[in-house]
Amino acid sequence: MFRDSSHAWNPTSEEIRSWAYSKESIPEQDWELAVNSFDHIPMICTFIDDETCNRDRFFLSSLYVFTGDVIRGAKVEEIQKLSILLNKVDKTAKAKKLKAWIQRSTHLIQYPEEYNRDYWGLGSKYIKMKFLC
Questions:
Q1: What is the spatial distance between Cα 64 and Cα 132, in angstroms, rounded to a whole number?
Q2: Does the pTM of the predicted model rise above 0.85?
């Protein structure tokens, strides 16, 4: 699917979409970091809403990492961009777990001091919660 490992760290939307519906293993460890960008988030949200996509846990994890990275970066422009993106995605989100990410992310934007790597980093405890599995 990817020419080499360095290409996997800069995937196109088409490559991410193709992997999302494939049976191939994760291209690289911590690949959640590679798929995260403001451009890819709307597409990632559609995967979580799509019951035929069996990668929802992976993509949900990437969303929590993305929010955590934006908040930790503390760049006002990026936080505002995330807020706008959350409002946009909220209008079409169907899955309870996607709506939970939107709600938690919105809360974290308002209270960045509540950031906790255990919930907003790789291996997020939110993903391990029973109602999300």
A1: 13
A2: yes
